[in-house]
Amino acid sequence: MNNQDVSLDSVDAVKVVYTGSVDHANIAYLLEIIDQINIRYENAKHIYLYIESLGGNIDAGIIAYRGLRASASPITTINLSNIVPAGNYLFCAGKCREAAFQTAHFIIHPVSWASSEDKETITPSKAINYTKLLNTYIEESKSIYQDCSNISSDQLDNTFYSKANCTIIDTTEAKKDHIIDGIAKKMITTPVSYYVYSTDY
């Protein structure tokens, strides 16, 4: 959504609202938007990325993290309500990270991966390969979380290898763990804004 009365050179900030699952289509569109902002609005000094997501595909989340980190304009990520892996990867990509409200939460759960092959048949070799793949995802996830927080490797292992479903982190804990830098007082108004959402969300 662009304000037609605003010149490209006068845009110093852009807002992006992401509400939906983390899948390859949504992430491709999000990264296309970020590239478009960087090319079209050369004087934009801030991109505000508002996120609410129940998670999704771990590969798509990792791709989003790497793509958002490469943005020429610095990105501030804001948790609108609740963010679940792989949505946390998007949030962690922000140079500055905030929670929009005191009631916002971050949810971390054990890393999982669904194979599209032989869902009912597991051979010893496949089990070994799946374990290697899961371990790769775990190490990648730990690297991302530790890059945007002071959560220790042991704490993350307790969650990733836990029998419990998830760890829920509120804003007080998020501040303590340096996941967030502060609380956003309101949603930023910008002359240009974009929206990414899932129709079946």
Automatic annotation (TrEMBL):
The family database entries (InterPro entries) matched by this protein are listed as: ClpP/crotonase-like_dom_sf, ClpP/TepA
Q: Which SUPFAM superfamilies does this UniProt record tie to the protein? A: ClpP/crotonase
Spell out the molecular function terms from Gene Ontology.
peptidase activity
- Gene Ontology annotations of biological process type: proteolysis
Per the record, the coiled-coil ranges are none
Hydrolase listed as a keyword: yes
Kindly give the Gene3D superfamilies that the UniProt entry links to this protein: 2-enoyl-CoA Hydratase, Chain A, domain 1
- UniProt entry tagged with the keyword Protease: yes
Keywords annotated in UniProt? Hydrolase, Protease
Put simply, this protein is called ATP-dependent Clp protease proteolytic subunit
To which species is this protein native? Celerinatantimonas yamalensis
Lineage of origin: Bacteria, Pseudomonadati, Pseudomonadota, Gammaproteobacteria, Celerinatantimonadaceae
